[in-house]
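Let us work through a complete example step by step.
Step 1: write down the sequence.
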Amino acid sequence: MVSTANARMRESAGNLPADVTSFVGRRREITLTKRLFSEARVVTLTGPGGVGKTRLAVRVASNMRRSFRDKAWFVELENLDDGALVLDAVIEQLGLGGPSSAAGLETIVDQLKNREMLLVLDNCEHVIEDVAMLVDAIMRWCPGVRVLATSRQSLGVAGESTVVVPPMQVPDPGHLPPAEAYEQFASVRLFVDRAKAAVPEFEVTADNADALMRLCHHLDGNPLAIELAAVRLRSLSLQQLEERLADRYDLLTEGRRGAPPRQQTLRALIDWSYELLDERDRRAWARMSAFSGSFDLSAAEHVAGDGKGVDILTAVHSLVDKSVLMREEDGGEVRYRLPHTLREYGLDKLAEHGETNLVRDRHCTFFAELSARFAAEWIGPDQAAWVQRLRNEQDNLRMALRHAAEGSETGGTALRLVTDLWPYWGIRGLNTEARHWLDEVLDNTPRDLPERAKALRVSAWFALLQGDLERVQPILERATALTTQRGDEIERAYLALLHGLIAFFSNDQQRGTELAEEALEQFRKHRELAGELWSLHALGLIKGMGDDPDAGLRMLAECIQLSTERSELYWRSYAQWATAQVQMRRDRADRAENSVKEALRLQRKLDNRLGIAFSMDTLAWIAHRQQRFERAARLLGTSSALWDAVRSAPGFWARFAGDHDQHLMQIRTALGPEAFDEQYERGREMSLTHAADYALELKRTRRSSSGSESEDNVHPMPLTRRERQIADLVAQGRTNKDIAENLVIAQRTVEGHVQNILTKLDFTSRAQIAGWVAGQRTGDAADTEAR
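Step 2: predict the structure and record it as tokens.
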């Protein structure tokens, strides 16, 4: 979406991945790539695996991001195995969206057409046709967007310039310079940097400099090869490493005359790294290549183990130590990842061992079981943790779905997987991806599988979320036929509830009530708690907004009580939001505000963007009733951005569309078009975090000189502890580099924090931050004196 993308850009200055290792060399390529962007709007970095295309792209984007109003944004395509998902990957990773259920290409073009940004598309070669189609459309309709792609081949789009990323400069072994001159070669500098990381006491001396430079020549200046070789210094000297590699290349490249020499070198080095491992580690490497993206230890043990006492933990530790596996830690959780080239190598070895299908089946089974556990435990205290867990596993879930959908004997697994995940798809706003998988799985699985009825019902729900009413009824008819045939009373109750909601949203109050009551009775009879909570919420909303608001509030209170007893967040938040809707109907704006703010707090924990969109809209209506017109307009802007994010719109919900439009027009009239548009756009440009803080009024309100509260005098309080620390250093006149050195963190991290501070405080300069810090100190002193 335009607004959410713009807000995220303003908040974090892009989403470029952090580079945790130092960057060495590539000045010529950086300069050339930046120069080409003065002549072309698409530049593709090409070259073989391991040559450093991704890191070069990130560095170029980091250098250039300030040249674009909306900074630089990164989309990783490596883990996609289906070109049909390219557009959804772009939408998700950029935070785009839109109310249309049409193809994602139109959405992306519509949302980026007014952006000024650098878009980095990484690892395009395996989905190159779909990427080329996307880039061609962006070039035609989004004049402010520049594209930097990495691929093993060019995209082939009009106006594209290519930069062949060569290996790093290497010494000529026949004319080696003096030892102290080794730093003139980028490959040698990189090797030394990585060697010191592996062996901190490593130093270049007159005795080992020649071996070092000859070794970098043997490695052909390939960054991945250099990094793989450098770690061997933990057990070998430079001279020993040079001798073994030189002999090995002569041996291993004999049988590969058809491959380019530098690819032979990298392959030979990976072969050597592989063959130095024991059998346990080799098998673990090959089997772990089945993962897409990152994975945790429990997944590795299931997929890479063989049930014969193989110690996967030891193998993982060994592979991390040898720089085969990358270790990542976030929030106390450790995960692992194979670099792209090493994963491809592992897949080849997996095929050589004849284990591809076996390991793919294990992988699919593990993630199908994970999804089943999610579905079984969803109504409970761990909903926020589950959402984060599935978010981490999203690439693996896609791979499991692909494998299950393609197998002749795994159709039931595919159907269960895609339906077990439906709350996750909805919360993450991945409605289009959910429909993609549902359509594919339903098309590719036998018609007599019992799981089809639920999959059809979930497919109808997502079609309803996107306003695709033409498809909803036919899908529900097929689901009803299957459910009736099988006599599944619980599924029949879900279908009744869905029909009731459709009737309600179509303004058929009586029909909606009858069907929701029928569903609730069946869910209680069969002790189906998830269905009972959904029905209580739906029936409370239907009755509450009809002619029996007291009954509606009682049902919503029951829903809140049941969910609270189980520490459940999802339905509790929707029941709180529905309570606010009913209270608004009764002109109880204060009670409505308390309820909807509680709903928003709960929805925020789950990152439930559809729920947040509803809550923001309702808060705007409440502000309108309170005659806080500027706040109302700004909240309508934030809700507009969120509707776009989930690719839905108030107009899809006929029961609310009229109220939404009426409030919008009245607020616009009260403020005047110019003032309304200004506040509305400010709302659209807020980050989700800032918008939620604003909506919840988690800010200190100061009084103007007239003694009245002013929206313009609202300051975000507090910053995070780290942001306040950095703000204090900014106020002292420190540069970002000084702050990074003082706090022992990366300069890029400091830049991100400073941008967050500017966004939260609605400032545009460091001088304003300094003034704010001084004001806070004065205010704190006054508070202390008053106490």
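Step 3: interpret the result. The chain has a mean pLDDT of 84.
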